[in-house]
Amino acid sequence: MTDAKLFDRYIEGERPLDTKTLSGLPLDAVYGPPAAEKPGQYPFTRGIHPEMYRKRFWTRRQQSGYGTPRESNERLLFLLKAGMTGLNIDYDVPTKVALDPDHPLAEGDVGMVGTSVATQEDVEELYAGIPLEKVSSTLICQPPASAFIVASYVLMAEKRGIPKDKLIGTIMNCGFTQLVGPTYQSNTTFYPIEFTYRVGLDVMEYCAGAMPKWNLVNVNAYNIRETGVNAIEEAAFAMMVASQHIEGLLARGLPVDSFAPRMAFFTAAHIDFFEEIAKLRAMRRIWAKMLRERYGAKEDRSCWFRTAIQTAALALTAQQPMNNMVRAGLQTLAAVLGGAQSIHTTGWDEAFALPTEESHKLSIRTQQVIAYESNVTKVADPLGGSYFVEELTDRMERAIVALMDEMRAKGGYLALFKQRWIEDRITAGRFDLNDRIDAGRLPLVGVNCFQDEDEKPPEMKFFRIGRPMIEDRIRYIRDYRKARDASAVGRALDAVAAAAGSNANVMPSVFDAVRAKCTLGEVGEAFRKGIGHALPV
Amino acid sequence: MARILIAKVGTDAHDMGVTVVTRWLGEAGHEVRYLGLYNTPARVAEAAREFKADVIGLSFLGAEPVYMSGRVLQEMEARGLDATPLVVGGVITPEMAEELRALGIQAVFTPGTARDAIVDGIAAVVTGDRRNAPPGQRINPGGPAQPSKT
Predict the structure, then answer these.
(1) Which residues pair with B32 in a beta bridge?
(2) Which helix (H) or strand (E) holds A154?
(3) Digit-coded pLDDT (tens) for A154-212
């Protein structure tokens, strides 16, 4: 495959080669009685498109990122060559919480679970050789760091002569869920939750106006789920987070149809096959009705529940780790039958570490086997009309809506987060989950049943990053700070602090700060200065 | 019963494992203090000194456990806590587990370790009798527990 073709797969899309079974029987795009709801019809229970994967497969979008931006760029090109069709960039935790690599709290975590980005130069290195107008990118970053990341991405495109309105991708940008889910301390230490929420809205407002093909928020239901709560809580919490974002943007005077089509979700595909499928079908219905009935959306696109899916890592085990390949295959199939827009199949070795190149490729191959060989892609919503699946969809919808109603009656998501009601639910959920595993009431093959008597640690090569990379990053950021106009940096950071302390949108000041070569950590510090918030260290 | 200090160090905020283990150790009758997220190595050592901890536990997912545990050991030594055992749990590869033991970490609990194995393992570290530490609790080698017929 030529390099030019390599970058065209997202725009061109992929689809089944024909619409027949292996025996040659022709297949219609959709089945069901004439009066039944069809895929592509409100409230989109059966999928947001009339023919779903028959016209275009889901995007293969594996999360990736580690070490320096240059190392991550190499992995991105490797994955695109293996058949990945969209990028999904994960940043390390210091980047996500806006700490530069030389911050004392960052010393062990630089480049560990994502790539280390602290400057606009880093962003350019990360995307070297990748055409931004052809390959869609998800940027896994929450506010307020997302403001810096979006500004850097847009300015990189500007340098390359690509207008903002041609950029395709997603800024995750959810301040309630993105870091490790909605746990209390993780979301209140670096910034107060109100500030994080407000900068998230600033970024959304900017994107809604300037970047029409860009997704301005992606509510991370996956991270909610991975804290240990169940599928009903995952869906209800995520919908209420989205509701909080919608109401924030409406309060700023934006019409619902100007931003709702660019809102998306990231959900989990856990191991309970039919419950996960029913959850996704129910979430589509709930979103559509909420947007039309509660928020008055006119456009169908506003009512499309679009979701990326990751197969739940919580279902994977360190014992007999090859079993994880089977789990991930089942979970990926559930995501496909549930109507996902993009999928990350979690690597079988991720019960230990970030995936190696080999396991990363196996994740893509898993999806390709389902897409190209199993023929489940040739009919839209093939489970639609199943007595069981329809009944379970209805019951999931009722349970999720009941929990949402309870949360609304108690004051909505932000209020419940601050009251630690969310935290208490998470704590109860994770205790229950672990007690059930420990008591053997929730079977985990290889862990609490069917163990190998002589199980030894697996003799496989796990991905690991060397310490010298961290030293390099620390040296880099210190040199970078020396080679720039210090007074311009100071002025730009003062402006960021002033914007943070006012009611103005922070984006113009963040753009200026990136142009003045401020680092992400400096912008983060200026935010804190502006609002008078101190770090615990 | 022991005084156990538990902490997350650095920016890694994955805390399901650590909150569950904290509760299990408390239920086993120990006096447990959980320091929460976002601690520097110095802060962990300082808190251990103030708390007069018999044992310190660290939890990791996605960080570099070997480097960070080494840093905590340094800070402990600087405060004369050389004799206090340090144990580590979390998402840790076999290679890292070996390096941690070589570093002087008294016990390493990897994913899937059963409750009793953790509780008994830490008790054994505190009493200094590691030979009695159970080799990982097996619950039902033959298959899942069947629901009782009541």
Answers:
(1) B4
(2) helix A145-159
(3) 999 999 999 999 999 999 999 999 999 999 999 999 999 999 999 999 999 999 999 99
Chain B residues inside the 8 Å CB shell of A91? none
Q: Is A138 helix (H, G, I), strand (E, B) or coil?
A: strand
| CATH number of domain containing A163 | 3.20.20.240
Q: What count of Cα atoms within 13 Å lies in the side-chain half-sphere of residue B65?
A: 32
d(CA A15, CA A194): 44
Interface test with A, best of B8, B9, B11, B140 (most A CBs within 10 A): B11
Sorted by sequence, the CB contacts under 8 Å of residue A306 that are 6+ apart come out as: A48, A264, A265, A341
Question: Can you read off the two tokens belonging to residue B103?
Answer: 């570093």
Partner-chain contact A93 B140, CB within 8 Å: no
Full domain range(s) for residue A25? 3-414
Q: Which two tokens stand for residue A106?
A: 């960052």
In a domain, A19, yes or no: yes
Q: CA nearest A329: which of A363, A355, A377?
A: A363
- Per the CB < 8 Å rule, is A352 touching B11? no
Per-residue HEC secondary structure of A191-205 comes to CCHHHHHHHHHHHHH
Task: Confirm whether A152 is domain-assigned.
Answer: yes
CB contact under 8 A, A93 and B12: yes
Interchain contact, A352 vs B71, CB within 8 Å: no
Enumerate the residues of chain B whose CB falls inside 8 A of the CB of residue A457: 94, 97
Q: How long a stretch of residues is chain B?
A: 150
DSSP B9: B
* Nearest residue to A337 via CA among A19, A38, A58: A58
Identify whether A460 is part of a domain.
Answer: no
A440·B144 Cβ contact <8 A: yes
Contact criterion met (CB < 8 Å) for B15 and A537: no
Which among A105, A109, A318 has the least Cβ separation from residue B111?
A: A318
The whole model's pTM is what?
0.95
Count of domains forming chain A: 1
Give all domains of chain B, ordered by start, each with its CATH number: 3-128 (3.40.50.280)
- Angstroms from A103 CA to nearest CA on chain B: 10
Q: Does a structural domain hold residue A227? A: yes
Q: In this complex, is the C-beta atom of B77 within 8 Å of any C-beta atom belonging to chain A?
A: no
Q: In Å, how far are A222, A242, A302, A426 from A238, measured between CA atoms?
A: 9, 6, 17, 14
Mean pLDDT of A289-293: 98
Sheet strand arrangement including A263-269: A59-60, A342-344, A307-311, A263-269, A217-220
Q: Beta-carbon neighbour count of residue A256 at 10 Å?
A: 19
Name every residue whose Cβ is closer than 8 Å to that of residue A123 and which is 6 or more positions away in sequence: A69, A117, A149, A152, A153, A156
The rounded distance, in Å, linking the Cα atoms of A95 and A183 is 19
Contact A254, A208 (CB under 8 A): yes
Of chain B, the percentage scoring pLDDT greater than 90 comes to 78
Contacts of B114 in chain A (CB under 8 A): 438, 448
B57 and chain A in contact, CB less than 8 A: no
Would an 8 Å CB–CB cutoff place B3 in contact with chain A? no
Pairwise CA distance, residues A503 & A201, whole Å: 12
Whether pLDDT at A9 is above 60: yes
Give contacts of A99 with chain B, Cβ < 8 Å. Answer: 11
pLDDT at A62 over 90: no
